[in-house]
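=== Per-residue structure ===
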Amino acid sequence: MARNVLGGELESCSTDPLTGFYRNGCCDTGGEDAGVHTVCVRLTEEFLEFSRQVGNDLSTPRPEYGFAGLRPGDQWCLCAPRWAEALAAGRAPEVVLEATHARTVEWVDLKDLRQHAAEPRE
């Protein structure tokens, strides 16, 4: 079983919208995941705008790919290098640590992830 950045079992990030490189709801990764989709984030309008500005529009629906578009509050498996880029720009979204894959710390310091930890949903 995959581990999260806290050392526990990797929890699901989101099934609505369905996320993950493998589209199984988890930020699991493997050799074929070149983008390293390991950071479970809770999206904000600020981050979605930042992502659009750097060439990755996550808000616009793309029905031809079965993608409805993302909204603030959605949880999504984000690429670790993109989260690091957003952090450097001061636009990093909150992180759901229990659902963030342990490999994320190869790109991002755990201290930074903890500083952006999302509050649990009720």
Q: What stands out?
A: The two ends are 26 Å apart (CA to CA). The chain has one domain: 1-122.
